[in-house]
Write a structure and sequence with these properties.
Layout: H1 14-20, E1 30-36, E2 43-46, E3 49-55, H2 57-69, E4 74-79, H3 99-110, E5 115-120, E6 133-135, E7 138-140, H4 141-158, E8 162-165, H5 172-182, E9 189-196, H6 203-209, H7 234-246, E10 250-254, H8 260-269, E11 274-278, H9 280-291, H10 297-311, E12 315-318, H11 321-328
Helix pairs in contact: 2-3, 4-5, 5-7
This protein binds ligand PBG.
Ligand PBG binds at residues 119, 121, 123, 131, 166-167, 202, 205-206, 223, 279-280.
């Protein structure tokens, strides 16, 4: 006897496939990472991230207007800080006229309704390329957290809607929340990089910001004492739960594709919105393969983004955001 159930019926043509499709990407799923540099008229392509650019403030203004027109309503800002402004404590991060603070104001002036999230970590400001302060060969936790809390207040005062701590220090969400409350910044949200793994996929990003750990005696050569071990699953839940208990509004898992099991696991455990960061190395891999003609860029990109959403992401931070929205038509 033929099977009563023929699963292929629901795949017969586009119309039925659309009708039963479970996951649909929309422009409002995306958070667009943007790299900002000092200067004027600058739009520099990042060598290991083809078609992705560092922008000076004037070009940042143009870019966010274009994003808004496309229906992309949220940006995540990163800054490339000149070497002469870097030190071990990331002092420049607290400059109320610093590049990040100016970038926040530029976006808000150009596009007042654009949701602005800012990266909070010391690495772009650190002369040693670490997310925290280095002391006696170690990245020290509590002193770093104090700077992160001040940095968050500074971003919020400049107009950031959300701060996004990407440093993985312990206890930083609570300290940031308290610092914001103390200043009356009760509406500033926190998107915590909760399960951030020590990943080799961040290479191109560190090129973009020139922020890799420096090769020096008494400076940790990698970020493994604070970012998570890629072998661990339960720890991701502990980290995420702790951040929620400390006051995180949104939690993030990072990188994306290799960690979709973690995304699903956390989706099943927690009720807050989940963001997934499809990181620079993931972007670079596809661009390189497509350039060689080995993969079809657009189809692979959409398959990856859909997979991230299907795994449980409510928000996708991706360098492909514009490309994807263009394909959505
Ligand atoms: C640093 C930070 C990194 C990324 C976001 N924030 C790099 C790192 O931890 O070394 C990576 C993003 C990407 O690779 O796209 N706090």
């Amino acid at each position: 006897m033929y099977p009563l159930r023929r699963n292929r019926r629901l795949r017969t043509n586009d119309a039925i496939r659309h009708l039963v499709r479970e996951t649909i990407l929309t422009p409002s799923d995306f958070l667009v990472p943007l790299f900002v540099v000092e200067g004027k008229g600058i739009k520099e392509e990042i060598a290991s991230m083809p078609d992705y650019y560092r922008l000076s403030l004037d070009n940042l203004e143009k870019e966010v207007k274009e994003l808004w027109q496309m229906g992309l309503c949220a940006v995540l800002l990163f800054v490339k800080v000149p070497d002469n402004l870097k030190d071990n404590k990331g002092t420049e991060a607290l400059n109320s006229n610093g590049l990040m603070q100016l970038a926040i104001k530029t976006v808000k002036n150009a596009c007042p309704e654009m949701l602005v999230m800012t990266d909070v970590a010391l690495d772009p400001y650190s002369s040693l390329g670490h997310d925290g302060i280095v002391q006696d060969g170690e990245v020290i936790n509590d002193d770093t957290v104090e700077v992160l809390a001040e940095m968050s207040v500074s971003h919020a005062m400049a107009g950031a809607d959300f701060v996004a701590p990407s440093d993985m220090m312990d206890g930083r969400i609570l300290s940031i929340r308290e610092a914001l409350e103390d200043e009356g910044l009760v509406n500033t949200g926190i998107m915590s990089y909760s399960a951030k793994y020590a990943s080799a996929f961040y290479g191109p990003f560190r090129d973009a910001l020139d922020s890799a750990p420096v090769d020096m005696k008494n400076v940790p050569k990698d970020k493994k004492t604070y970012q998570m071990d890629s072998a661990n699953r339960f720890e991701a839940i502990t980290e995420t739960q702790a951040d929620i208990d400390e006051g995180a509004d949104i939690v993030m898992i990072k990188p994306g594709l290799c960690y979709l099991d973690i995304v699903r696991e956390i989706r099943n455990e927690v009720d807050v919105p989940i963001a997934v960061y499809q990181v620079s190395g993931e972007y670079a891999m596809l661009k390189a393969a497509a350039e060689k003609g080995w993969l079809d860029h657009d189809s692979v990109m959409m398959e990856q983004l859909i997979s991230i959403k299907r795994a449980g992401a409510n928000i996708i931070a991706s360098y492909f955001a514009k490309d994807a929205v263009k394909l959505m038509g």
